[in-house]
Every structure is written in structure tokens, then in C-alpha cells.
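DATA SHEET
Item: assembly model
Revision: 1
Owner: S.N.
Input lines:
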Amino acid sequence: MLHDELVSRLVEFVFEEWKESIVQMLVDHGITGAKSRPPKIGGYIPDLYARIANETCIIGEAKTPKDFETDRSQEQIVSFLKYADENKCMFFLSVPFMYHLAASGRIEYLIKLNGYKINVYIVHELGCRKFCASN
Amino acid sequence: MGVHKLIPIDEIDLDLGNPRIARFLEIYGTTPSAQQIAFALREGVADDDSNETSTTFRSLKESIRTNGGLINPIIVNKAKNKHVVIEGNTRLAIYKEFQERGVEGNWSEIPCLVHEDMIEKAIDGIRLQAHLVGVRPWDPYSKAKYLSKLRNENHLTWNEIVDFCGGKKEEASRYIAAYEDMEKYYRPLVDDTDFDTTRFSGFVEYQKKNIKDALIKHGFDSSDFAKWIKSNKLFPLNTVRKLPMILDNPAGKEVFLKKDAKAALKVLDSPITDVNFESISIRELAKILTKKLRVIEGLTMREYKADPSHPEYQALLDLKVDLDDTIDMVEGN
């Protein structure tokens, strides 16, 4: 499944980038019990939640292009961005390479619309696109 | 007639005229790595089902590995002592990847059907059969780019294009017009690295007469449309077909210009107050709707056809999108 691949890539990327400072990393891959699943954020469970040493956190979500464009996903992502803004977290989104521009554009738009200040990473097969949003 | 041969993979060049590779080169320059080429070929990102291309790629790779090689040879053209792939770039990329990674098996040579000095028209015919109507279709933007090349550079007639790739002239013509609009109005707004081909289907929808008419009626043009696409006012792209309805409604138009199409559509959706539909189950609602759909009269259907922005028809299209998505999710597609 494409979604599973996207989650794996997200987990690998976050781990590689932050392994020195990760205190706890929780991943929702449908296998582990409820205790090790990421917490609900605004009513939605992200695919990844990590706490890092300087007391900030990482929220990670993987989306196939089709799923990304649904109303439910848009509401979910706004919830994650809002939480990230309020709690000084970073937001990671894992999408297929050819969709990363569309996804980046949309996230930038949502951030600007809501006036959030967040660091966002769009992860794909060939690396990552990072942008810092400030209002 | 071609000749079957086993050719060392290092002696075959990928087809840089393949729109998926060409598009990638536009972004990443002329010397992409083998890995980047593989991704370029893997990623079609069809708008309607983005999983499909990736799944097909994975299945193909697995099948080649399991069988220890190809069942169908790739097609190459030999010209000036060089072999260039006409059909089979992905399979060659997979061989190269297996060879690089040391996957068990013999991946140094690949079965080929070799033609010598093929003319451009014959090459076009093979590409079209394989990727416009074949089992591994290109993504819509790549198709349109290639159709535009055939029409405007190779000067094929509409009949020749339709003969090659099937379908209808109108469809091919709409793709080319959408490609030209996207190149002319959207490309100048973004850097090469930000040119987002997944926005192409918005430009295809924009070719519909009722949408262009609505823009003109309200004093907008193709440049405005491209800006709206770029600025995410029209997200998701199925909101493009709602533009006539949005622009015709003063409140909707104001919200659209200030925010986006989704917000404008909320303004347009008048709340139903006399019946509490929220309390009715999906099963009951589906039954009622099915019953109603089965007795739609021909006259009503003709009204929908004559005016695609008809609110009832638009509501049905919305329902179709959500229904398809829900069923796809349930069935795990």
C-alpha cells in the first residue's frame, strides 16, 4: 500500500534527522496497541508523534494525493497545523515526489490563511522540502 | 520488422523524448541519476487514481525480479550506431537498478526488439499506443505535452492523432488547449522547480465553455485563472467546475476573491431548516436518493446536459466524488 510506504519514509526521515534528540516516537501503523499510538490532536490521530529533547514536538502525517484532497484530510491537517502553532511543534507531511509541490502549495496557503508560525517539512522519495512559515 | 537481440544495458540510452523523463529534466537538469530517472518513470500521479502508477511500477518490478527477466522485449531504435529506447524505459531503468543493487540474476543484458533507423512517425505510433491508450498510461500533463508536440511540431492532422491514440478529436484538442494555457499563463508565475503538473486537470476543466464564459462575463481572464490555481483558491481542483455558480452569486464571489472556492461554496449552500436530515440514516437517505434518481425524466437530464452548472447536477457530481472516495477507501484502493 502506498500509504504504508509513505509512513515508513516519514518515520525513517524523522528518525535520521532527529535521532540525537528524540525522547519518544509514536507511530500509528495499525499494529501496535492503543498505548503506543500517537495522541489524538483536534480529534484526529496523526501517523507519527515525536517528543524531542528541547520540549518541542513533531507531528507527522502521510497522505496519498487522492486522500490529501478530501475535505476530511484538509480539516485534519488544519487541526495538526493549529496544534503545531500553539505548541511550537514541527509539522512533517509525507507525500509522493510528484505531488510534493501541490502539497507544499496547499500547506503554505493554509498557514498563511490562518497566520500560523510553523516549520514544515514535506518529505518525498528524493528528499525533503522545508519551509519556515512566519506571519 | 525488428530483430530480437540481447543488448548490454550500458549500450542503450533512455528515451529523453519520453514526456515523463523530459519533464524531470526540465527540473533537475540534463544529468539526472539512475535513481531520479526511476522516480520520473514511476511517478505518473494520475489525477483520478494516484496509487495506480506506483502500484503498477511495483508489480512490474516484482514480476521482473521473480521471472528473472522480461517476458516482452523492450523496443529500441538503432540509429547512428546508438540504441535508444522507444518503448520500455521503465523496464530498462529497473534492469539498471537491479544491476546497481546487485540483485540476484543476470541484469547486464536486456531482451530487445531492435528496429533500425525508424522514422519519427513510426516512433510516435509506438509511443502513443503504449502510453496514451496502453497499459501504462502517462499522467495527463505528459500526454498533453506529447499531443501538443505531435500537433504543433510534427504537424500531424487530427485524424492521424485520433487514429494513433483512439478517443475523440475534442478530447485531444481540449488537452492541447489546456497544455497551452498552462504553459502560457501558469508557467510564468512559478519557478521551473515549482511548476506543478498535478494542477493540469484544472486547466482541462477550464476549457469548458461555460467556465470560460463565466470568467469573461465577470471581467476575468486566463491570467486570473492561472493565478487562482497558483494561489490555491481552486483547491481541490474539482472546485473549478463550480466557478460559474460562485461568480454568479455576489456573496459567493466576494468570499471566493477574499478566500477560496471552498469557503465560497459554504456561502452558496443554503441550510435546509424544515427537515432534520441529520437524524436520517445514510441507508435511508441512500434509499430515497436512489428512488428519486430512478425516476429522473429525460427532460431534466437534457437540462443538466445543456447547463452543466445546474445546481442539481452540480450536487449530483459532488455526491459522486464523495461516494467514489468512500467506496475506494472501504475497498482499500
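QC remark: Chain B touches chain A at residues 35-36, 39, 43-45, 49-51, 54-55, 139, 194-199, 230-232, 235-237, 259-260, 262, 325, 328, 332 (CB under 8 Å).
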